[in-house]
Amino acid sequence: MATAVTPPPRAVRPPGRRRAGGPPRRLPYLLIAPAGLLMLGFIAYPVLSVFYYSLQHYNPTKPWRNGFAGLANFTELFTEDPHFWGTLAFSLKWVVVEVSLQLLFGLALALIVNQTFVGRALGRALVFSPWAVSGVLTSAIWVLLYNSQTGISRYLADAGIGSYGTSWLSDTATVFPAAIVADLWRGVPFFAILILADLQSIPKDLYEAAEVDGASRLRQFRHITLPHLKDAIVLSTLLRAVWEFNNVDLLYTLTGGGPAGETTTLPLYIAHTSVDAHDFGYASALTTVAFVILLFCSTVYLRLSKFGGENR
Length: 312
What we know:
Elements: H1 27-53, E1 56-57, E2 67-68, H2 72-79, H3 84-113, H4 120-128, H5 135-145, H6 152-158, H7 175-199, H8 204-212, H9 217-245, H10 249-254, H11 266-276, H12 280-305
Antiparallel strand pairs: 1-2
Helix pairs in contact: 1-12, 3-7, 3-9, 7-9, 11-12
């Protein structure tokens, strides 16, 4: 009778040992560790510092008042600060108007430069060039354009439109539209770049099939183009909304928050509180509230828009 032969037990490779013919399992983590530590140091530490100072009275010019404040900064912010709610309301107004107009014009430009025409490469370069200009330089350009002596208003006055010496940045009735136009010039190319990249990924067969079925250009745009652009639009509007909410450089250089505080956003108010008034504790509390607002609105927006979901 044959005797059953029991095979020898397989050798178990100790965890953490290198696989035969392959790199160690921990090698990818070791390679990204330096970048991760740098990100932790440059992002996590400042954020935690802001949370810490939001609970402190900290003003280098008044060291005798420094110390633990608890929730006193937040209580003052919500109940006593005469500027917080006004700057927050203007920030929301600024974000909604800017992002809506930038998306509209950016989508239109992307659709135009996506077509085939003579000089398309030059046209794309001209459309995208404002995005390469820094915010401070953009502000300087528009300050010159809005100058009452040498800017646009003088040439309009020469043509009989308006009067000489008109300063659009000093008038409460015109400062908001003037700032909107200046930021549109810089922000529209951002949407045009992202939307154009997504437009070029749409299969041409879909448009050809739609034409065979007799679909008009409008129906093709509604049922083919927009669904394919959904994720790009959601992502670009979210990023731009966060950037516009935190916009300081353009408004600070153009108007400084004036006239009469008409263009003071919440981040600009934070900058004035910290840099000019040296009240870093209260400015940290304002920053913490702004962070919570952005986090909440971003989460709700992504949930409602179903970003990354099925949209075809």
